[in-house]
Design brief:
This protein is mainly α. The chain has 5 helices and no strands. Among the domains are: 71-103; 108-189. α3 (108-122) runs antiparallel to α4 and α3 packs parallel to α5.
């Protein structure tokens, strides 16, 4: 059995449409029963106008198949909701700490910096003094590979400054990876060294 986690893409638009359809069905007023003329149960016929038929839904995607992308209208609606929510959050933060100014917009350099920090932390950087660094070498390799994919897919579309930042970061994390893997390889070939004596 593989240790790789499996994930499933869920199309939230269909779930929302189903919930709205159910709420419309439950909110429809019940039809009044005609006056009983005799004993026993009576069949109640709903004579109100039938609810408009829901548009035919596409068959759910087969396992492993990616659902259709959202429409332009859905994307715009979702972006507006996201922006409004982010603005409310920023207003709350500023209300708690008025000295905090507006956050600068996120740009390409922030993305590259995020990958850089992730890779370095995965390679043990940032460990507190006296603590043994926790190394996730396979996670670091994945993060570095993602930076490589980013460089490949954005080639020719970056400004000179963005390209320089990306290439510099990619060079630095690859060098750190090479140094770390060579240390791991050397330690694997030699008997383990005793820890250094503690300070008294």
């Amino acid at each position: 059995m593989s240790d790789t986690p499996k994930f499933e893409v869920i199309d939230r638009r269909k779930i929302k449409a189903e919930e709205e359809q159910e709420s419309q069905q439950h909110s429809a007023p019940p039809a009044e029963a005609p006056a009983a003329t005799g004993g026993g149960p009576r069949l109640v016929v709903n004579e109100s106008k039938p609810a408009p038929a829901a548009p035919p839904e596409a068959a759910p995607p087969a396992e492993g198949e990616i659902p259709a992308p959202p429409t332009a209208e859905e994307s715009l609606e979702q972006k507006e909701a996201y922006d409004a929510s982010a603005q409310r959050l920023e207003d709350l933060v500023r209300a708690q700490n008025p000295a905090v100014g507006a956050q600068p917009p996120v740009n390409f350099e922030n993305l590259v910096q995020q990958f850089y920090i992730s890779a370095m932390v995965q390679m043990g950087a940032g460990a507190q003094e006296g603590q043994r660094p926790r190394v996730d070498i396979l996670g670091a390799r994945t993060t570095i590979d993602l930076l490589g994919v980013l460089a490949e897919k954005t080639r020719g579309n970056l400004t000179a400054a963005e390209d320089k930042t990306l290439q510099t970061v990619l060079f630095e994390v690859r060098m750190a990876f090479l140094e770390l893997t060579s240390m791991i390889t050397l330690q694997g070939m030699q008997p383990p060294q005793p820890p250094p004596p503690g300070k008294r």
